Amino acid sequence: MLTPPLSSVEEQRLWGDHGQETLENAHVCLINATATGTEILKNLVLPGIGVFTLVDGHKVSGEDVGNNFFLTSSSIGKNRAQAATELLQELNSDVSGNFVEESPDKLLDNSPEFFHRFSLVIGVQLPESTYLRLGSVLWEAGVPFLICRTYGLIGYMRLIVKEHTVVESHPDNALEDLRLDQPFTELKHHVESYDLDNMEKKDHSHTPWIIVVAKYLEKWYSEHNSQLPKNYKEKEAFRKLIREGILTNENGTPEDEENFEEAIKNVNTALNPTKVPSATEDIFNAEQCENITSQSPSFWVIAHGVRDFVRNEGNGKLPVRGTIPDMIADSDKFIKLQNVYRDKAMKDAAVVSKHVEALLQSVGKPPESTSEQEIKLFCKNAAFLRVVRCSMSSLRFSACDSEMVLYLMLRSVDRFYQQHSRYPGVYNYQVEEDINKLKLCVNSLLQEYSLNVNVKDDYIHEFCRYGAAEPHTVAAFLGGSAAQEAIKIITHQFVPFNNTFLYNAMSQTSATFQL
Amino acid sequence: MADGEEPMAVEGCSIGDWDGRWSHVQKFLERTGPFTHPDFEPSEETLQFLLETCKILVIGAGGLGCELLKNLALSGFRHIHVVDMDIIDVSNLNRQFLFRSKDVGRPKADVAAEFINQRVPGCNVVPHFKKIQDFDASFYRQFHITVCGLDSIIARRWINGMLLSLLSYEDGVLDPSSIIPLIDGGTEGFKGNARVILPGMTACIDCTLELYPPQITFPMCTIASMPRLPEHCIEYVRVLQWPKDKPFGDAVGLDGDNPEHVQWVFQESLKRAAEFNITGVTYRLTQGVVKRIIPAVASTNAVIAASCATEVFKIATSAYIPLNNYLVFNDVDGLYTYTFEAERKDNCTACSQVPQKLQFPPSAKLQEVLEYLTENASLQMKSPAITATLEGKNKTLYLQSIASIEERTRPNLCKTLKELGLADGQELAVADATTPQTVLFKLNFTSETCSIKQVQN
């Protein structure tokens, strides 16, 4: 019996073989093997990340072992990166684990290029000065940076990436691309091949609803000056028109024609005007799309090619997507209709390919620089493209709702650390006296950024109470969240958060801000 | 956290503990705070309660279960029982991280318990390689909190019903000490939810049955004669061709975990697809359809199990006010959570004590009653067994799960309620896999002109 590789069968259903491949070719760096760090890594090792490098200068303490599944008491006193790598590696033999017994500050001092080799760097429980330094090194090198921390009952993530492109965003409720408002020639001909008024009942009841809508649209056009049904009233009238087309038996009762019911149900969305979504328009108008050079990533090269298509052969429309939803129909009619869309999609993609080839040639690159598969995938997803840009801006605040206050408190404890070389309230005797010290940090931050906000004393007390604890369940929540965002960054599938995420385990609420 | 400083020795540790072991937890138990539960009192005894006394039941040792056990063990819980009726399959290994390839074939509960007990010294996870239905009230009564990581709605409803049956009332007032909180987590791909149920007080599983959409099945006519998608071809082979061809012997059922079976289905599906010019049948798709695989991701399980364990901790220690009462999570596009209070249903079949009604004309056939019990969105029973008291005796009107009784009572399905001797106002007792207790329905005869199809309760 063949044993399938550990790199999962399950996840491949979600991000496909090509997604799994990028995961297996990736090398992730994770800094600090705290509970949060090892939980993140666990959720990357299990689905089969290619290689990980764990960087940590700390020695394992008794406290570390208490909340960390990947440290045991026998490792107390040993280097934390080494100890954790052993138990993480053991989860999946297809994954290679490395460790570096060094603090990130030391590495930044001596050899910052160390970080250039990674697909992604994840920094866990880093002091502000470290993540600022590391952030600029990674920004220059074009390496995405994910900052994570668990502080008491608060989880926090920040993503910093110059430009992250997503072709396969897999939107939950995507509208179909049926072109009923502007049928392409091949679709028109195919619709013409049907004669609904002279069909046997069996054929009539198993005609795909797309054809039904197309036929009745023609009827509608002839009576409405070739205008689409636009408002609710007109759509109702159009639905009625279709309903009148349902066959009746000798007594005049309507037959059971599910395909007609489907047609009526889909009138709402099927007649949406075909147009280029604004997110895609923005991509076409971006500077990177306009100015293609030999350095341009293939995303922008293909985008430019699609743009050329839209402005020429496409007549203002994207390449046909080529898929249709399942619907009541006999196999033959369905497959034929499906092939009409599929063939058109292939034709359009081929035209896009020509544009891309010409483009590559014009910047002195061989046509093989982008594969046909890439171009096809891009065309299929042209309506769902996304670009995410998250810079490392200086602190900005929007309205001060409760999650924003938490962010402010996290920045305040960073400031506390800067001033006192420790976090507030770590030891019982410190809690009371640190409240006032922390309050000073909060106020100085508010002043510095000219924020006219009243932060309740309760939050200051609570953050002293936390004593920089890292309870396992909060670390585990962040472990799952961060790992999935990391997978999105690596596979370029699904859309990553942009750019600050806060989780409050007290209230089980979360918020995402763009700072 | 800060380098070069020694944490204070922790007093009152159990044997086998080391300095600082519970430091992350203790801060929430031994310090006052502005957001704690009104009942919370900082004390060193709470940690001792977790370590020595508190008993937690974890149901499921799969993707969620493994995470739950780890989370609870590292939060101070030591007395944990875990129930799971499955054995480890090779496809589990990349998510259910307590299992290794050497463990394939062994019970999940056993291996999970062994791993946790070894990795987290002092933790005592007791495994039960059993179905939840194998235990009775006396078993469930011993736990302070029950937390579920199940993949079956039926099982959820069953445990929900069991915990409800443990409630005791004095003079119509619920005795709070009989309440065993139920924390329930579920995931599917990038989506998940976690909820807190206080039986008898908050919305239960059945109160919100409509939140669980029925599983998608394909219509038989599509499968039998009009396939369009590769899935239709696979279903054809699974449902129609396999029972006919019996490729591996007379009484051999299709086993999704047997690669030879799946290979056969795959090959036959390809042939069927070729007949209709359908492309897209792959081995993986075949396996997915045959095993009804819902794609699972380690990260979603991690998030949901973490949320559940946080709630277990809050409830066990009164450290914070628990989730009230439903959390939804989705990380397809960024990360999204939504928290709301699911409401109790006034006439919930499981937790309200409102007698359930069945309204049918006397000329309705028993078949219609059966269909109502299975198809109604608030009931969604699986294979209900209906009994009634007739002429002083308890008679089974219809029961599906035992072949001999099914055969004997099948003719009753075509009989009208009147023909069966049922009277207006009569009580029908219905048993089903979705509940450990029989549900009583009162039969109200409607006039003949009333519509037969029932509107949702």
Automatic annotation (TrEMBL), chain A:
Pathway: Protein modification; protein neddylation. GO terms for molecular function: NEDD8 activating enzyme activity. Keywords: Ubl conjugation pathway. One of its GO terms (biological process) is protein neddylation. One of its GO terms (cellular component) is cytoplasm. Residues 13-510 form the THIF-type NAD/FAD binding fold domain. It holds the Pfam family ThiF. Belongs to the ubiquitin-activating E1 family. ULA1 subfamily. Regulatory subunit of the dimeric UBA3-NAE1 E1 enzyme. E1 activates NEDD8 by first adenylating its C-terminal glycine residue with ATP, thereafter linking this residue to the side chain of the catalytic cysteine, yielding a NEDD8-UBA3 thioester and free AMP. E1 finally transfers NEDD8 to the catalytic cysteine of UBE2M. This is NEDD8-activating enzyme E1 regulatory subunit.
TrEMBL record, chain B:
Residues 358-446 form the E2 binding domain. It holds the Pfam family E2_bind. It catalyses: ATP + [NEDD8 protein] + [E1 NEDD8-activating enzyme]-L-cysteine = AMP + diphosphate + [E1 NEDD8-activating enzyme]-S-[NEDD8 protein]-yl-L-cysteine. SMART domains: E2_bind. Gene3D superfamilies: NAD(P)-binding Rossmann-like Domain, Ubiquitin activating enzymes (Uba3). Chain: B, domain 2, Ubiquitin-like 2 activating enzyme e1b. Chain: B, domain 3. GO terms for molecular function: ATP binding; NEDD8 activating enzyme activity. The active site is at C221 (glycyl thioester intermediate). GO terms for biological process: protein neddylation. It comes from the Eukaryota. CDD domains: Uba3_RUB (cd01488). Keywords: ATP-binding, Ligase, Nucleotide-binding, Ubl conjugation pathway. Transmembrane segments: none annotated. One of its GO terms (cellular component) is nucleus. Pathway: Protein modification; protein neddylation. Its EC number is 6.2.1.64. PANTHER family: NEDD8-ACTIVATING ENZYME E1 CATALYTIC SUBUNIT, UBIQUITIN-ACTIVATING ENZYME E1. Belongs to the ubiquitin-activating E1 family. UBA3 subfamily. Catalytic subunit of the dimeric E1 enzyme, which activates NEDD8. This is NEDD8-activating enzyme E1 catalytic subunit.
